[in-house]
Amino acid sequence: MNQLEYLKLLKLARTALEEYKNWDEEELVIDNSMMQNNTEQKKVEPNVEKINKEEINNLEKQEEAIDTITKNVQTKNAEQKLEDLKKQIIGCKKCDLGKYRLNAVFGSGDAYADIMFIGEGPGFQEDHKGQPFIGKAGDLLTKIIIAMGFTRETVYIANIVKCHPMKNPQEPELKSNDRPPTIEEMQVCQPYLDEQIKIIKPKVIVTLGASSTRALLKTDEVISSLRGKFTTYLAIPLMPTYHPAALLRNPKLKKDVWIDMQKVMALVKKKG
Ligand code: SF4
Ligand code: URA
User: Which-ligand-closest: CA of 130?
Assistant: First the structure.
């Protein structure tokens, strides 16, 4: 029997105990008199026949311990699975981006996040630090997340490709060297993102900008007509919106992003 099967068995035992606790005293008295095959229904001394309070307290403490263990096992599962996947990505050379990157950027946040934001790919800063969205666009994304009532730690942030796409890969120290990932690069890297989504199981996915939206939805549509409408990816609601870098270039788009994020917030709330 593995640990989870064992915990399931303990849960069953706990349910049975709950049932037992819910029986009222009268039922227990009748049951006892019947068991003794006694035609006269005697009132049985409570001290002898009442459920032993101390025993129940002990069992309740055990229940709490089971809950804690179950939670720990589950927590360890998602976090451990992400850690295992991260190890694969750090060593990945499946496409040419892996040859020139300084750091693979796996993603960051809560392994049980309700919302997962998916950007395009690491830029100069992200490549240097190994963290997603930490440049100017990242600062704006952080503000959006906070305005939504979350933090970077309570959501999950990732990209469609994990390594820095560069115009001139020989010069990783060059600024203004970022470029969007190609369709091929996104296709090769996408299984890693799919795995992250399956582990985290967010309530909603938000794709930021045209690259990640088009790659996941397999469409050539422009982001201005895709944004603001829910679709699904891997059976999870997906809301496309503008990339924060686009908002830095054109602040008028902020209004639309906020409309999209309000829809996301409403759905998260509805899903409880
Ligand atoms: Fe591997 Fe993705 Fe990096 Fe390409 S971009 S090397 S597929 S992790
Ligand atoms: N832009 C992205 O799409 N992703 C990052 O991680 C940083 C900037």
Answer: 2
For residue 43, tell me if it sits in a domain. no
Task: Answer yes or no: is the C-beta of 163 below 6 A from any ligand 1 atom.
Answer: yes
Whole-structure pTM value: 0.76
Average pLDDT over residues 260-269: 98
Instruction: Give tens-digit pLDDT for 154-189.
Output: 999 999 999 999 999 998 899 899 999 999 999 999
Q: Which atom of ligand 1 is nearest to the CA of 98?
A: 6
Task: Name the residue range of residue 156's domain.
Answer: 103-271
DSSP string of the chain, one letter each residue = --HHHHHHHHHHHHHHHHHHHHS-HHHHHHHHHHHTT-SS-PPPPHHHHS--HHHHHHHHHHHHHHHHHHHHHHHHHHHHHHHHHHHHHHT--SSTHHHH-SS----EE-TT-SEEEEES---HHHHHHS-SS-SHHHHHHHHHHHHTT--TTTSEEEESSSS--BSSTT-TT-SS-B-PPPHHHHHHHHHHHHHHHHHH--SEEEEESHHHHHHHHT----HHHHTT--EEETTEEEEEE--HHHHHH-GGGHHHHHHHHHHHHHHHHHT-
If you average pLDDT over residues 62-82, what whole number do you get?
Answer: 74
Choosing from 101, 106, 128, 133 the residue with most ligand 2 atoms within 8 A of its CB, the one to mutate for a pocket test is: 133
pLDDT over threshold 90, residue 66: no
pLDDT at 41: 46
**Shortest-distance atom of ligand 1 to CA 93:** 6
252 and 163 in a single domain? The answer is yes
Same domain? 126 vs 82: no
Q: Which among 69, 90, 111 is the end of a domain?
A: 90
256 located within any domain: yes
Question: Looking at the predicted structure, is the pLDDT value of residue 262 above 90?
Answer: yes
Q: Is pLDDT of 63 > 80?
A: no
Q: How many distinct structural domains can be found in the chain? A: 2
Same-domain pairing of 63 and 186: no
